[in-house]
Amino acid sequence: MRYDLVIVGMGSGGIVAAEFAASLGVRVAVVERSRVGGDCLWTGCVPSKALLASAKVAQHMRTADRYGLTAVEPEVDLAAVWRRIRAIQQQIATTDDDPARYQAMGIELVFGSARLAGPNAVVVGERVLETRRVLLCTGSRPAVPPVPGLEQAGFLTSENFFELENPPRSVVIMGGGPIGVEMAQAMNRLGIRVALLQRGDRLVPRDEPELAELLAGVLRREGVDIHFGTVASRVTVEGGRKVVQGADGERFEAEEILVAAGRTPTIDGLGLEEAGVLLGPRGVAV
User: What is the reported pTM?
Assistant: First the structure.
């Protein structure tokens, strides 16, 4: 069968593109190697905002005296918070992101890993999907810095953080971008001790300096331990706890390490060269 459009990736971008294409009456197929919903549903927007919502309620309880109410320290059940996150994900997965819903629109879902065999062909297993156009919506994955000992010690990223059965009571976060900042505030508000390590001299370096200064002040007042100009040189495990050693001799100890050091495009194994796509050091050249 020949398609008008084959989309690779059924995350937020792929879903919107597929729905729009189907509304125009074109023949569209979407290739997904994992789960419908992509990063937004499983590792990004949905679970992080659900976590932030629980953290916000906890903070309102602590600061209720601002509103003429009695402030109390919340009793947080971290396992229950994580169960709530997974329940929300499953609710969306079985309603808005249910594969049957898209199939009813005339969108064909093909599960498996895609590889381009030219500008007009996508190979999935033994199938060859011939198409007029290919749209790549493969998203990105966490970038992991090459810190000695990090792989051996084990670490968390947004890929597995929300799958925890027993969330840690203390975390060292490597990275002060948007993901690191929101996770630091959420965890701290839920009673998890947080140390946030940032290589540069401010948080969210792509945003306005005034905003970064404001964020740092808020986080510190709430209890987040922020360290600027800190480069991790080695990770070890001592007495069952993980220790991040800084280049200047600092030591940061916690139950877990969360790596939030940016993202890298998910383009491995797609065969982009076969389709004449130019690649640069940071992914597809634009």
Answer: 0.93
